């Protein structure tokens, strides 16, 4: 079982990543169909597997005006790209 503090930390990082690339996670769930609560949970768990969340946080801090895509190391790159395009 994951440490609750680690889950919270990565949920925040993932939400920041989504916002940075123009994806509104909450709206995607509320609109139904494009993202489920279960898929969101899986995405947070993938984020928890990141080997360098500190670098991720630094990358996010540097994206003052947003970004067109996630960095290559992001474990949720495919999901973010799918939600951004559709």
Commentary on this structure:
This protein is mainly α. Helices cover 64% and strands 0% of the residues. The chain has helices spanning 4-20, 25-31, 37-48, 53-62, 77-85. The longest helix has 17 residues, at 4-20. The chain starts with a helix and ends with a helix.
Short description:
The chain is mainly alpha-helical and about 90 residues long. The chain contains five helices and no strands.
What percent of the residues sit in helical stretches (DSSP H or I)? 55-70%
Alpha-carbon distance between the termini? 33 Å
SSE series: HHHHH
What's the story with the biggest beta sheet? none
| Dominant shape | globular
Secondary-structure class: mainly alpha
Approximate strand percentage: under 5%
Mean pLDDT: 93
Task: Please count the beta strands (DSSP E, at least 2 residues each).
Answer: 0
Count, helices? 5
Which residues sit in consecutive blocks of at least 5 with pLDDT less than 50? none
Radius of gyration: 12 Å
Walk me through the topology.
Layout: H1 4-20, H2 25-31, H3 37-48, H4 53-62, H5 77-85
Which structural traits does this protein have?
86 residues, mainly alpha, 5 helices, 64% helix
